UniProtKB/TrEMBL annotation:
The lineage of its organism: Bacteria, Pseudomonadati, Bacteroidota, Sphingobacteriia, Sphingobacteriales. This is UPF0173 metal-dependent hydrolase EZ449_02270. InterPro entries: Metallo-B-lactamas, RibonucZ/Hydroxyglut_hydro, UPF0173, UPF0173_UPF0282_UlaG_hydrolase. It comes from Pedobacter frigidisoli. It comes from the Bacteria. PANTHER family: UPF0173 METAL-DEPENDENT HYDROLASE MJ1163, UPF0173 METAL-DEPENDENT HYDROLASE MJ1163-RELATED. Belongs to the UPF0173 family.
Length: 225
């Protein structure tokens, strides 16, 4: 499986059969100016919540790729009003597609849409695909509910926000890894804006001291999971 980072919380997971794009926010991110969204392909687009830094390119990319959008019903309604036809609304539950299983899980955040309308609940996702279990937390603070994931899954990777202010910071993310028992973390939602800038060397060192792995691929970089 391949992971390509596009900045903020936007990334692409390439499984054996599908391309899964998450939280598309590229053209409005100055750090991602080298990314050509016309070259992005996706079979599904998964949206954690409706804030602009997670849906700014959703409509354009959904139309460009023909991808099916997976999101809360309120986000789906907003997207459909803008001409998106292929959709799969979810809430806090689990669904098995022909390529793998997706569970939508709670996130502690807010979730309005760019037009000011109600965006439903913020969420994260747990994917079971190609023999791996991957947790994308979405925008969230540290929450005790994360502990239940350890009862259900043996997570291979956790994709966590680490920028603080709006979400968990590095220290909170380390606590979270103990809640759901996962030692491999990919950091997202950091350095895009001044208020979520971090010292990446300090972050990497903190994880290393806890005998855990923090992966921070550059924007546009692809790594193998």
């Amino acid at each position: 499986m391949k992971y390509t980072y596009y900045g903020q919380s936007c990334f692409l997971l390439e499984t054996e059969s599908q391309k899964l794009l998450f939280d598309p926010f590229i053209t409005h991110n100055p750090l991602a100016k080298a990314i050509d969204i016309k070259a992005i392909e996706a079979d599904y687009i998964l949206v954690s919540h409706g804030h602009g830094d997670h849906v700014a390119d959703l409509v354009e990319l959904a139309k460009q790729t023909g991808a099916t959008v997976i999101a809360m019903p309120e986000v789906i309604d907003w997207a459909q009003k803008q001409g998106i036809e292929k959709v799969h609304p979810m809430n806090f539950g689990k669904f098995t597609f022909d390529w793998g299983t997706v569970r939508m899980v709670p996130a502690t955040h807010s979730a309005g849409l760019p037009d000011g309308s109600y965006g439903g609940n913020p969420a994260g996702f747990v994917l079971e695909v190609d023999g791996k279990q991957i947790y994308f937390a979405g925008d969230t603070g540290l929450a005790i509910e994360m502990k239940v994931l350890a009862d259900i899954y043996n997570l291979d990777y956790a994709i966590l926000p680490i920028g603080g202010n709006y979400t968990m910071d590095v220290d909170d993310a380390l606590v979270a890894t103990k809640y759901f028992d996962c030692d491999k973390v990919i950091g997202v939602h950091y350095n895009t804006f001044p208020v979520i800038e971090i010292d990446t060397n300090i972050a990497l060192d903190k994880f290393k001291r806890e005998n855990k792995t923090l992966l921070l691929p550059k924007i546009g970089e692809t790594i193998t999971l």
